[in-house]
Write a structure and sequence with these properties.
The complex is a heterodimer. Chain A has 15 helices and eleven strands. Chain A is of the alpha/beta class. Chain A has an eleven-stranded mixed sheet, sandwiched between helices. In chain A, α5 packs parallel to α6 and α9 packs across α12. The longest helix of chain A is centred in the C-terminal third of the chain and has 24 residues. The radius of gyration of chain A is 21 Å and the shape is globular. In chain B, 39% of the residues lie in helices and 22% in strands. In chain B, the strands form four sheets. In chain B, strands 2-6-7-10-1-11-12-13-14 form a nine-stranded mixed sheet. Chain B folds into three domains: 286 residues, no CATH class; 113 residues, no CATH class; 58 residues, Orthogonal Bundle (Arc Repressor Mutant, subunit A), CATH 1.10.10. Chain B starts with a strand and ends with a helix. Classes of the chains: A alpha/beta, B alpha+beta.
Chain lengths: 485, 481
């Protein structure tokens, strides 16, 4: 096995036993990026010098016996995480030259553990999209099929994993942006419960939905990474002050007697037949492992996409107001007068999808429309959350597809925003409910594209879904397949 | 036709916290531009607000002092608009569920008490400010200073219960006194710590329907409030009388010309697209917190005035003067608690103390004669150790040196002489030297006594106990001794 293909726990073993140095691992990773990046385009910025100096420091730390599981491990971050001194674009032209003066809490935590940042990953502009096609830095290609999208918005985070360009990555998930690309690229992706991980220093798209999470090779790595980034942050009032368990400790717990719910609203006509087949097989696997399968209903699922596109765009329209050309980011220098400067800077700096969502959200919040759109959507959101809470009275977790289809072709849905929006139909409700969900490799389409399985847990029930995902992973071999690139 | 003005006021009070409302930056006024800023108050991507608890406490104080209900749950909302001094493109404020609702303030005008409703009090952040002109490093242009951005404000909104500019000013003065008393603001109007927007409309006397209102922005002194409202009332009446219509608009008062001019019409008004700020969780305030704050409230001016007149027997006028500022009233109360006689403490504070402070341009808080020293001085007078005349000398000496009154009296030998033997000697000498006047007294010209008292005090260098001297003189002059 190549060094760049190792999981965190495998690589960490080698580093701790001094069979390998972090500098060597990092050099191998940088070479791998160099070799594959022209085909994948998972990165917006690669940071070889900073990476090698961090790797040197990590090696010294390990030599001094002060390293831990994450020390010296090559990491890449979605370009939505602020990284002090390293350009952070959020996939947008408006932040093309933005070098942040501070770092996101999640990155601070990983840096403190000695992880080595190799670069910043491509994404849909401001995390608005399901295909990474809305990035101002070119589309990222799916390593399993370069004609296909990697999913989005954390497309770079998943593609880099599939192309073995990093040992672990972080993404953000507002409506499926970690789980859907993880599914499309055959990796493990977790969206933690809202409030589990700090959002401080993560560029906001829709503040009440955004959540940071890991994209990894396997479930154990996912549990490790979650443990490293979770916890209350005094700088984020919405982060919750609950103790962080050792997520890896519960992994070998098995699923015997576990009640797994199948929401009937998620197994509808129009669900791709390969996806349906994959779900059926997953159900069979869980049955064979001793779990109990129970039918549940999430009756307001139909309203989730509409509800999401009102709330998320409303929040986005306000969150993106700060990109006005006054203090940072792109400014049109020829404008005469303030209004013209605002209009031209934003017109030039934002892409079409971002503009579309700002307009939608502005409209939804406008005087006279607020009650009919935003307020109504908030009420629907409560109903959707209640759907889940009711279901969790009956079952321990919910099994569902991540996306209705495997990765689609680049360009296929660019001109049909509504079709694009519908590709998040099974992930959006989890964000609206504020609970947690994980995507695990569960099979392949007839054309060889990965298909993920989604496990949805109770609020702060990450241990349960990690444990169930781990049991599935142990019983199958899907996560061991590699994209030929 | 006669018109009835209707006025409502929105007052912005800058709170006296050490740090800003949503970040840890200091709130000091007048620092180097943008030196008091961080990712949060600069509105950098990814930055998040964290509420300063002190601000909430101050808002509760203001609410309790104005008879408001404190909402057990209140919400921060975003007020969205673009302006270069507003770094996030929205202001974090409160909209639908403010922290305080339904209070009132009683104002007194020409002996009549009138109750003015307070609709709501809410917390919000201030914006930064724009600087124009020749800027260091920028040349000629406009710059943004975000030191003030994110400093905490309370907005206190009155009901449209005010009926004249004088009532508006009385309300503002009363409110100003209360918030300064509460210690939640420095109340400095020149620096903008207490500023006011006035909503003014007129309607025919007897009408039930309110007229269309104009909002006058940012009037920053009591004098300008009066001018601006009076001008605006007259402008609206003239407009209606001439067959015109008042339009709903925002107007700006120009203190130089004394007129208001239109800033933006209703059509140009912003649609602020308020919605709950998802970055801040709902603010939950427990009954305990409210009660704790209630217990820590200082006694307010009105309660103090009543206590000074009814319990201490001071005149209304004296009570008014002593309660004009919290610091002055605190000084007076401190003297009382040290055992001073109320009337004499009041006289000294309003006399010598105030005079000294005015001469030196000092605030009561930095008065070199502390309540303890003043109480010591008054105590020496009460005991007859020194005379009132000597007391003024000692007071000046305390002011200069900060020494203890008793020490000064001793060092300077200012002890009042009550020893009849010593005084008798003085009296004898004076009588011997002024035998003509003795004859006059004995001939029935009793007011010559004053002359002898004066001479005796002079001879004793002011230290003679006047009562003892008087008695002694009378006895001797009448030939009884």
């Amino acid at each position: 096995m190549e060094i760049f293909e190792l999981t965190i726990h495998e690589l960490s073993d080698k580093l701790q036993r001094r069979e390998l140095s972090s500098v060597e691992a990092t050099q191998t990773m940088l070479a791998r990026i160099e070799a594959t990046e022209s085909r994948v385009n998972a990165f917006i910025t690669v940071t070889p010098e900073a990476a090698l100096s961090a790797a040197t420091a990590a090696d010294q730390r390990i030599a001094a016996g002060k390293g831990d599981m994450l020390t010296g491990i090559p990491l890449a971050l979605k370009d939505i995480f602020l990284t002090e001194g390293i350009r952070t674009t959020c996939g947008s032209r408006i932040l093309e030259n933005f070098i942040p003066p501070y770092s996101a809490t999640s990155w601070e935590k990983l840096k403190e553990r000695g992880m080595v940042l190799v670069g910043k990953l491509n994404q849909d502009e401001f995390a608005m999209g399901s295909s990474t096609e809305s990035s101002a830095y070119g589309v990222t290609r799916n390593p399993w099929d370069l004609e296909c999208i990697p999913g989005g918005s954390s497309g770079g985070s998943a593609a880099a994993m599939a192309a073995r360009q990093a040992t672990a990555t972080l993404g953000t998930d507002t409506g499926g942006s970690i789980r859907q690309p993880a599914s499309h690229c055959g990796c493990v992706g977790l969206k933690p419960t809202y409030g589990r991980v700090s959002r401080y220093g993560v560029i906001a798209y829709a503040s009440s939905l955004d959540q940071v999470g890991p994209v990894t090779r396997d479930v154990r790595d996912c549990a490790l990474m979650l443990g490293a980034i979770a916890g209350h942050d005094p700088k984020d009032s919405t982060s919750v002050d609950l103790p962080v368990p050792d997520y890896t400790a519960a992994l070998p717990g098995g699923v015997k007697g576990l009640k797994i719910g199948l929401p009937k609203e998620y197994f509808i006509e129009g669900l791709d037949s390969d996806v349906r087949k994959t779900m059926d097989e997953a159900v069979a696997t869980y049955l064979s492992l001793g779990a109990e399968i129970v039918d549940v209903s999430l009756p307001h699922t139909d309203y989730a996409v509409a509800c999401y596109y009102l709330i998320a765009t409303a929040e986005a329209s306000s969150n993106l107001a700060r990109y006005d050309g006054v203090r940072f980011g792109h400014r049109n220098r020829d404008a005469r007068g303030l209004l013209e400067m605002y209009c031209k800077s934003r017109a030039e700096g934002f892409g079409d999808e971002v503009k579309r969502r700002i307009m939608l959200g502005t409209y939804a919040l406008s005087s006279g429309y607020y009650d009919a759109y935003y307020l109504k959507a908030q009420k629907v959101r409560t109903l959707i959350r209640n759907d889940f809470l009711t279901a969790f009275e009956k079952v321990d977790l919910i099994l569902a597809p991540v996306a209705p289809t495997p990765a689609f072709k680049i360009g296929e849905k660019v001109n049909d925003p509504l079709q694009m929006y519908l590709s998040d139909i099974f992930t959006i409700p989890v964000n609206l409910a504020g609970t947690c969900g994980i995507s695990v490799p569960a099979g392949f389409s007839a054309t060889g594209l990965p298909i993920g399985l989604q496990l949805i847990g109770r609020p702060f029930g990450e241990e349960a879904i990690l444990n169930a995902a781990y049991a599935f992973e142990q019983a199958t071999e899907w996560h061991q397949r590699k994209a030929q690139i | 036709m006669n018109y009835q003005p209707v006025i409502g006021l929105e007052v912005h009070v800058q709170l006296l916290t050490n740090t800003k409302i949503f970040c840890g930056c200091p709130t000091t006024f007048g620092s180097e531009p943008n030196s008091q800023s961080c990712p949060v108050c600069l509105g950098l991507p990814g930055a998040l607000p964290v509420l300063n608890r002190k601000v909430v406490e101050y808002a509760i104080r203001a609410g309790l002092a104005t008879g408001c209900e404190i909402s057990p749950r209140s919400i921060f909302a975003r007020k969205n608009y673009f302006y270069p001094d507003l770094p996030k493109g929205y202001q974090i404020s409160q909209y639908e569920l403010p922290i305080c609702v339904g209070g009132h303030l009683d104002i007194e005008l020409e002996g009549m008490v009138k109750r003015i409703g307070i609709t709501r009090i809410h917390m919000e952040e201030d914006a930064g400010k724009l600087v124009h002109g020749d800027l260091p490093g920028l040349g000629d242009g406009s710059g943004v200073d975000l030191n003030r951005a994110c400093t905490p404000l309370l907005e206190i909104v009155s009901e449209p219960d005010l009926r004249s500019a004088d009532e508006a000013v009385a309300y503002l003065k009363k409110l100003h006194q209360i918030v300064v008393y509460l210690g939640i603001t420095d109340g400095n109007m020149e620096e903008g710590s207490f500023r006011c927007d006035a909503n003014v409309s007129v309607m025919p006397v007897g009408s039930e329907t309110l007229g269309t209102r104009a909002e006058i922005k940012n009037v920053n002194s009591f004098k300008f409030v009066k001018q601006a409202i009076e001008y605006e009332i007259e402008r609206q009446i003239d407009l209606i009388e001439d067959g015109g219509k008042v339009v709903q608009e925002t107007r700006l008062f120009n203190p130089d010309s004394g007129v208001t001019r239109s800033m933006r019409s209703k059509e140009e008004a912003h649609d602020y697209r308020y919605f709950p700020d998802p970055d801040l969780v709902p603010l939950v305030i427990s009954d305990d917190w409210v009660e704790e704050t209630r217990r820590s409230l200082p006694e307010l001016p009105e309660a103090r005035r009543i206590r000074y007149t009814s319990e201490l027997g001071l005149s209304t006028q004296d009570a008014e003067v002593l309660t004009s500022s919290r610091e002055l009233a605190d000084y007076f109360d401190a003297c009382l608690s040290l055992g001073c006689h109320p009337k004499s403490a009041a006289n000294w504070i309003m006399g010598e103390v105030t005079r000294g402070l005015n001469d030196k341009g000092l605030a009561i808080a930095s008065c070199p004669v502390t309540p303890r020293l003043l109480a010591g001085l008054l105590g020496l007078m009460d005991k007859g150790t020194i005379s009132g005349k000597i007391a003024k000398t000692v007071f000046d000496e305390i002011w200069q040196s900060g020494k203890e009154p008793a020490q000064i009296v001793e060092e300077k030998g200012l002890l009042q002489v009550s020893d009849t033997g010593a005084l008798e000697k003085i009296v004898d000498e004076i009588m011997a030297a002024n035998w003509g006047q003795v004859e006059e007294f004995r001939g029935g010209k009793e007011k010559v006594l004053g002359f002898f008292v004066g001479q005796a005090m002079k001879a004793s260098k002011g230290k003679g106990n006047p009562a003892v001297l008087n008695e002694l003189l009378l006895k001797k002059l009448k030939g009884e001794g």
